[in-house]
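Quick one - first record:
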Amino acid sequence: MEKHIKLVGVLNIVYRCVVMVGSLVLFFIAAIFSRIMDYLERRGELHAEDVPREILDFVPFILLIIGIVIAIVSIVGIVGALGVMKRKEWGRILLIVVSFFNTLRVPVGTALGAYSLWVLFNDETIRIFNPLPPDRQEKVQT
């Protein structure tokens, strides 16, 4: 199970870094959104009557909020994965929460989330993260 725990940590870090790049793309699009709309209007591909300007002015704000949420979840996932790799119980719990959210991101997030949950809820993994104190180990063995 040790190899699975390490693999879950590494895969979650890699996946969250890739997702973080996606949030940076959203930040970039939000920053240049008005320029994109102006360009489309000049080319004649977007007319003022197609979409009200008030809605178009609100789109960068929505993109920014989505990017911030994705960035926060990615940072939390990376921190949780690092905690799992150091065999910290708080990291396991944090990564379990993030893995539930991963399952909503079909197909890669679903596969990674399901695998992570399988590893993190495994009885052997729980024993690795929560070893019994020495006085309790003697009672269990006898």
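second record:
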Amino acid sequence: MTISVFGNILVEKDAALVRLLPWLKKQFPQHTFIFQDPVEDLQIPQEEWWILDLAEGIDRVVVFSNLDKFVRNKGTSVHDYDLFMELKLQQKLGRLPEILKIIAIPTTMPEKEIKEVLKSYFLSLDKRLS
């Protein structure tokens, strides 16, 4: 399965998942993790697609499977605006896979806790797929 990782290494509050990308690849080699920029050549798989991204304004991990459940804040970064807008555009064009899961992780969550959360999500995903 393809799992896209979004983030910006130049912005500290948006860099944790990018820093964890080598760990994710090593920990879960059965999945394809790719770093993506929503503005430049977004790669959309045809099969089930999971997205990992950090989000402001949440205090726990939230899994979205419907873009209409997103609440857009006035204070979002350009990165967040571009990802949401690109996904909405691709949805209108019928290019998103039927199964889309977005794991939104609070920007305030420590990396150690992010690792634990992701382990549990991917272990449950692997059980479902086997």
